[in-house]
Amino acid sequence: MKVFYRKEQSAAGTKYYSPSPRKPALAVKSWKNLGCQIQIVSFDPVTRDQLKQVHDPDYVDGVFNGILNNGFGDRNSKITTVLPYVSGSMVAATLNAYHTGETSLSPTSGANHAGYGFGGGFCTFNFLALAALEAHKAGAKRVGIADCDMHWGNGTSNIIQTLEWDWIDHYSFGPDITLARTDIGQWKNSFARRMEEMAAGVDIIIYNAGADPHIDDPLGGVLSISDMKQRDQILFATAADHNVPVVASLAGGYQDPLDPVLAIHDNMYRMAWVYDPASNYPNVPL
Predict the structure, then answer these.
(1) What pLDDT does residue 98 have?
(2) Any residues with CB less than 8 A from the CB of 113 and at least 6 apart, and which?
(3) Cβ(284)–Cβ(270) under 8 Å?
(4) Which of 39, 43, 44, 12 is nearest to 28 (CA)?
(5) Beta pairing class for 143-147 and 39-41
(6) Which CATH number does the domain housing residue 226 bear?
(7) How many Å apart are CA 157 and CA 161, to the nearest integer?
(8) Domain that includes residue 99, residue range
(9) What is the pLDDT of residues 247-278, one digit of tens each?
(10) CB–CB of 116/163 below 8 Å?
């Protein structure tokens, strides 16, 4: 399975509440240790002009020029340096999935709270929206964004509304949290129906596979590890049934130490591998 990763997309040594800047390298290392087939693929960083397709140009220039805060609330040059590579990974993985039909992975986090002219919630630029646009430009008539981060993708919704995109099917877990807390079985059935609806109507699914809904996450507290594995299974299996390619990113996860978060991302990798149309290894232990 192709993982679009370059060392430049990790900001080692940063000490934010969110581990997102340093998580790409750790997730890739963990995936390599699974014993699954993994192919690391390089890519080009995105340009300012690409980001300006989904963000206010003044906001993009303001962040890169150190005039405006990034999504972490500061102007740390380490964050600024990795941003083109973070988005570049997601764009490249998405285009690979769309063109080949393979499941592709981008070890990226920090997108869904970034809107057209703002960042926040550890999100600076919305690579979900940018990847969706690049897939649309490449020929995808409709693009699905299945955002299973714990928190509502307000930034993604803002971009869709601001740019008046009518070719996006956007699901966000945030509005479903109450249902998941009160009746997990009902939520799973609802999620399965929603993914069936999405897969039947789009050409590619962008999956923001958040680890922060986990019951032990300080910003989560909803799903067990078994629930989260089933969530991943529902999405990948449904997409495979409809021959719709999936590209997945990591989204949030705030447990400290980070080992439980990496274990959740490992489970997502396993599900992606099992249901990847290009996989020759259907008997991977789940």
Answers:
(1) 98
(2) 71, 119, 120, 121, 122, 123, 151, 153, 154, 155
(3) yes
(4) 39
(5) unpaired
(6) 3.40.800.20
(7) 6
(8) 2-275
(9) 999 999 999 999 999 999 999 999 999 999 88
(10) yes
